[in-house]
């Protein structure tokens, strides 16, 4: 199977998570200028991975190479990026308390991160159900807005201990991203309730209890 250019870009975005995480973790064991340099490079790579989210979709549309694989991978990569960074923020919470001024900020990040991941698992399950019935459930505008908010949030939180503004921007946008997570999740369910209805049919029966004719 030939992989399209758009899909290659999507896969590249996913691979950028590895150097981002490696640099972020390495920074935790350094101090001074080295610490700042490692965190800054990690944030730049992360921003690149997030910013190119729109490139793969644009390339797919311009080249008329929109595929089911691309529709599946694109939102999956977004989830991987957010999940990995939220895990790192909680694991190394010293970057979120800003010298003790926000002592419990990591708890907020963990709670909201759990909410966000719960939504993503729910939507992932819905997509799997849709795929079983031959329906590809792609991202919609609300999901894209949520993704943009979360992308900016995690980039800001990556630099949280660099300046107070990053703490405020990252945390506020994380709240906004959590809210959009709930809104977009509910919208996905309502928009694709027919997929859920079909999956709940038993022994070939339709959701209303009438057999196929």
SSE diagram, text form:
Elements: H1 5-15, H2 17-27, H3 32-51, H4 53-62, H5 68-91, H6 105-132, H7 141-158, H8 164-191, H9 193-199
Helix pairs in contact: 1-4, 1-5, 2-3, 2-5, 3-7, 5-6, 5-7, 6-8, 7-8
Characteristic terms for this protein:
Four Helix Bundle (Hemerythrin (Met), subunit A), 213 residues, mainly alpha
Summarize the structure in short:
The longest helix is centred in the middle third of the chain and has 28 residues. With 213 residues, the chain is mostly helical.
Task: Write the CATH homologous superfamily.
Answer: CDP-alcohol phosphotransferase transmembrane (TM) domain
Provide the low-confidence segments as ranges.
Answer: none
Helix content: over 70%
Mean pLDDT: 79
Number of helices: 9
DSSP, total strands = 0
How would the global form be characterised?
globular
Rg from alpha-carbon coordinates? 20 Å
Sheet-strand content, in percent, reads: under 5%
Cα separation of the termini: 38 Å
**Count of domain modules:** 1
Helix-strand category: mainly alpha
Largest sheet: none
CATH architecture: Up-down Bundle
- In CATH, what is the class? Mainly Alpha
Output the CATH topology.
Four Helix Bundle (Hemerythrin (Met), subunit A)
Order of helices and strands: HHHHHHHHH
């Amino acid at each position: 199977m030939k992989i399209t250019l758009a899909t290659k870009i999507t896969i590249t975005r996913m691979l950028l998570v590895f150097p981002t995480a490696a640099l972020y973790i390495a920074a935790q064991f350094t101090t001074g200028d080295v610490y700042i340099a490692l965190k800054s490079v990690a944030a730049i790579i992360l921003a690149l991975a997030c910013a190119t989210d729109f490139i793969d979709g644009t390339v797919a549309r311009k080249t008329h190479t929109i595929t089911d694989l691309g529709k599946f991978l694109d939102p999956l990569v977004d989830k991987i990026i957010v999940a990995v960074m939220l895990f790192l923020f909680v694991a190394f919470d010293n970057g979120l308390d800003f010298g003790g001024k926000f002592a419990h900020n990591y708890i907020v990040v963990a709670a909201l991160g759990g909410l966000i991941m719960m939504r993503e698992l729910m939507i992932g399950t819905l997509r799997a159900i849709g795929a079983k019935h031959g329906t590809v459930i792609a991202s919609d505008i609300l999901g894209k807005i949520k993704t943009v908010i979360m992308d900016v949030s995690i980039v800001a939180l990556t630099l949280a201990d660099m300046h107070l503004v990053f703490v405020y921007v990252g945390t506020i946008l994380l709240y906004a991203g959590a809210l959009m997570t709930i809104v977009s999740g509910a919208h996905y369910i309502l928009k694709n309730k027919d997929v859920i209805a079909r999956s709940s049919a038993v022994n070939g029966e339709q959701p209303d209890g009438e057999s196929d004719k």
